[in-house]
Amino acid sequence: MSLAIQNLHANIGDKEILKGLNLEIPKGEVHAIMGKNGSGKSTLAKIMAGHPAYEVTAGDVQLDGTTLLGIEPDVRSRMGLFLAFQYPMEIPGVTIANFLRAAQQARLVEGEELEAVAYYKDLYAKMDALKIDRAFTSRSVNEGFSGGEKKRCEILQMAMLNPSYAVLDETDSGLDIDALKIVSDGVNALRGPDRGFLVITHYQRLLDYIVPDVVHVMVDGRIVMSGDKDLALKLEAEGYDWVEKETAVAA
Amino acid sequence: MNTDTKPVKPEIGIDRSVGDFRYDVDYEYDAGIGLSEKTIEYISNVKDDPDWVRRFRLAAYRKFQDMPMPTHWASDDLENIVFDNIRYYLSQGTEAKRSWDDVPEAMKKTFERLGIPEQERKFLAGVEAQFDSEAAYSNIKAAVGEQGVIFVGSGEGLAKHPEIFRKWFGKVIPTGDNKFSALNSAVFSGGSFIYVPPGVKVTHPLQAYFRINAENFGQFERTLIIADEGSEVMYMEGCTAPKFETATLHSAVVELVAMKGAKIQYVTVQNWSANIFNLVTKRGLAHEEAEIKWIDCNIGSRLTMKYPGVIMKGRKARGEVISIALASDGQHQDTGAKMIHAADETTSNIVSKSISVGTGRSTYRGLVHVPKHLKGCKNNTECDALLINSHSRTDTYPAISVRGQGNACQHEASVSQISEEQIFYMQQRGISKAAAMSLSVNGFVNDLVQQFPMEYSVELKRLIELEMEGSVG
């Protein structure tokens, strides 16, 4: 059981962004991808989720052995894939409570109604854990939220939708240290044998709080190096130049 | 003979398919096709009009003939109305029944299928159900009637309460206000007449339902509501028609009169099929400290032109128009509001939200008039447009003339789109594209929908969902 990416090539317009990417995240593990700006990290996240702007030209993405390619984003979500966005969208007039309710309702078989009392109980418990004020339930999704509130709201959504694989795209960006701790605690609480995580980040700092099993380095649309959490520390201390030199030699 | 066109889902409130059916009806009275003085005479004879009404109709007919089609500012699509092809009066008699059991079978079945008797039992103080030209049913709850509230068809109001009817009829909207108010004044039939005595507060809504059943037909109801001093009333109207191949015309005139300190709320949830020309004139006259509020929801029709207005004639009178328009493929919603300030310290509020989908087109036209000699008047106007896909078009024509000192006016307008990124975000949470669209649209109008009575807001949301499902494909 894994989220597996094989030889993935993808374009936006005529520009190739992913150039033969391989990666496998077994259920129960937390993997991190680090890389410089422009290496294709966020593109990878969007392609996995099925963003319509990108074209996959070769390779495959499989969730527990089933291909995700050619499948609508909402179906991928219901199959168990979650993406915490780097820049969560504002949905004016749609409250968090109604939004998550619609998302949970979409997971029920047709004709079945979500049980409202249990839903709110669950929602409030998870909001409390993430230190989100309950008044937020009646606020429009992400509208007027601070950077930290948006990221906490992403984690809340993840907790409510209970995915089998979660991709966190630069979840640490724009967070101060207190917010980073809350968000990391929220993620760590969801770690377990039934879930795999892919944590995409620019900075090592996040990985002090969400300690990964495997760290991958992405350069120019490919994973060029993998290692344990010490690799992240080395990248933090020495930058990416040595990786590029080493892998250029190898190539 | 039963000519159901397709099965409908009975559990759904007021969606387009629920209205899309018809039963054949043998009309006892039929003015034939086309419009002439003879047509008007026929209508007057059937309705046994008093002389002043006969004269009123004929004068209006001449005005209608003299007035040009307002294509210099409105849509050219008006040219496609062929007045000679329309039937102006169809009924099975002029007397509305007080019991559903007495309503002719086909009509009764129609209204049952639209859920009207059920709504009446559940939450309404009174119901009038109009089928083509005349009300088939009209009744108010005994407790409301005992308070002296009158709620009857316009014909019955004219016959039985001439002293109130004649005093206000045609006074808020003059015959020659526009070509279609003139047409309505010539051939009007049906609509409601309501009188609420001083101090009486009608706690539940009164509802009228307008059903067009016949093809090539024009429905010209005429509604007059008078709320006497300190009284309160809420009136709701709904409307449907089956899908026809040819254009059908609905052209109503609605006049409201709120005496000192009275409150009138007029709620419209229109769900016309896509070949209806809906050209309606609605205006209220608010006396001192009175309040008139139009809550207007326009879904469906081929072309709707409707600008509910309030003339604030007395000091501290208040006018409000809350409107939602949804223009789907091939439809044009040309709507707005008119606020005429005619006394000191009068306030008006306009909130208009329009949604254009596909080739649908929304236009907002607003008129706010505050003359120079007045003091302490306020107007607030907000119009927001939401565009769904690149073919959509939206226009805003606000005409605001605020003169004098100490009068305030505020105008805000916005145009937004549902972006691909928003849809992707919602889809990533497992919500289908169509559901994401309807969620966004409902979000856009949410603050206005909450002002609708509960029963209507639920139906409205469902209706928007159905429209959006159809538009995503």
How would you explain this protein's 3D organization?
The complex is a heterodimer of chains A (251) and B (473). Chain A is of the alpha/beta class. Chain A has a domain at 2-88 and 164-250: P-loop containing nucleotide triphosphate hydrolases (Rossmann fold, 3-Layer(aba) Sandwich), CATH 3.40.50.300. In chain A, 37% of the residues lie in helices and 29% in strands. Chain A contains 9 helices and 12 strands. In chain A, the strands form 3 sheets. In chain A, strands 6-9-10-3-11-12 form a 6-stranded mixed sheet, sandwiched between helices. A 4-stranded antiparallel sheet of chain A has the order 2-1-4-5, covered by helices on one side. Chain A has a two-stranded antiparallel sheet with strand order 7-8. In chain A, a hairpin with a 2-residue loop joins strand 11 (214-219) and strand 12. By secondary structure, chain B is an alpha/beta fold. Chain B has 2 domains: 16-306, no CATH class; 425-473. Chain B is built from 12 helices and 24 strands. In chain B, the strands form 3 sheets. In chain B, strands 5, 6, 8, 9, 11, 12, 14, 16, 17, 19, 21 and 23 form a 12-stranded mixed sheet that branches. Chain B has a 10-stranded mixed sheet with strand order 4-3-7-10-13-15-18-20-22-24. In chain B, a hairpin with a 2-residue loop joins strand 3 (126-131) and strand 4 (134-140).
